[in-house]
Specification:
alpha/beta; 12 strands; 304 residues; eight-stranded parallel beta sheet
């Protein structure tokens, strides 16, 4: 049986979600961090989160030995590790299902191994070669292949109150920032430290009660509360709804914040509920009435 062949891109053009709209192309990337449990818990919900519907599943490293998936990203060569049962099982399962196995050095025993398309992915990001973890390689490949919805579960590089951490978080969040500017929607497990999901992405410094710090019984405002607060201070006679718009693209007048979605898989009265972080997925900014003539336009992302 012939193994899978890495698809050849016609042009090294950085994709944007708008290029595929209204066509949705979604993938969930499952790594080995503890927030992988958010993915499995979400699968058991009566009403599954949108990111799980009609999406591919990619496994990072040894997760490929645990669940069936559409692709495995294991950039390290497996040659030195085939004596380990988990590595051997991962390779054998992928071979049996003819799953593309992306790596730097395909093993001759496994015809489903393909070389990770480093040049194509780098070109998608304008020549950037900052990829320091398999999760980053998976995010880069997903964006290069035109996926406009990317779920990230188990992509944890640090944990709360623990001073040891793996490298990779900054790289992944850097790529997510580029993706968000291009219109890619990201979903992150609610218990992941990636994008500070575990602490609900509360913006720093905005006390709900200015006289009561969060570490002394107070709390931080949510993003919608901050916007209402700012609007009330600036325009006490106007409704906030008049000044809020949903940001679809990045323009010189507006700057879109980095956004990720968090799924709350807790139960309430026997029913599932999803809670979305970062403005409760209200990707909104205060409409700017004027743009200063001295304000420079936001620079375009480098094209390949």
């Amino acid at each position: 049986m012939d193994g899978p062949v890495e698809p050849q891109a016609g042009k090294n053009v950085a994709p944007s979600a708008s290029n595929f709209a209204p066509n949705r192309k979604a993938v969930n990337i499952i790594a080995m961090g503890s927030s992988r449990n958010d993915f499995f818990q979400a699968q058991l919900m009566e009403t599954r989160p949108d990111i799980l519907l009609g999406a591919e599943t990619w496994c990072v490293n040894y997760m490929g030995a645990q669940i069936r998936c559409d692709r495995i990203i294991h950039v390290d060569p497996v040659h030195p590790y085939l004596g380990h049962p988990v590595v051997r099982d991962m390779c054998e399962y992928a071979l049996k299902d003819n799953v593309p196995f992306y790596t730097s050095h395909p093993h001759p025993k496994y015809p489903n191994h393909v070389v990770y398309p480093f040049d194509r992915v780098s070109a998608c990001f304008g020549g950037i070669t900052y990829f320091n973890t398999s999760v980053a390689y998976a995010i880069g490949l997903a964006m290069a292949d035109g996926f406009n919805e990317i779920g990230l579960f188990g992509c944890d590089f640090s944990y709360p109150d623990v001073h040891l951490a793996e490298s990779g978080r900054a790289c992944c969040e850097f790529l997510m920032g580029i993706g968000t500017q291009r219109g890619v929607r990201f979903a992150v497990g609610q218990n992941s430290t990636l994008m500070d999901m575990y602490c609900k992405q509360a913006p720093y410094g905005w006390f709900a009660n200015p006289n009561l710090p969060p570490n002394n019984g107070g709390r931080l405002m949510t993003a919608p509360e901050i916007m209402r607060h700012v609007d009330t201070v600036r325009n006490p006679s106007r409704q906030i709804s008049e000044n809020i718009i949903t940001i679809r693209t990045v323009t010189p007048e507006t700057v879109e914040p980095l956004v990720a979605v968090v799924f709350d898989t807790t139960k309430s009265n026997g029913h599932d509920k999803s809670v979305e972080a970062n403005s409760d997925m209200l990707v909104k900014l205060v409409k700017q009435k004027q743009v200063s003539p001295r304000k420079r336009a936001r620079p375009e992302l480098p094209a390949a």
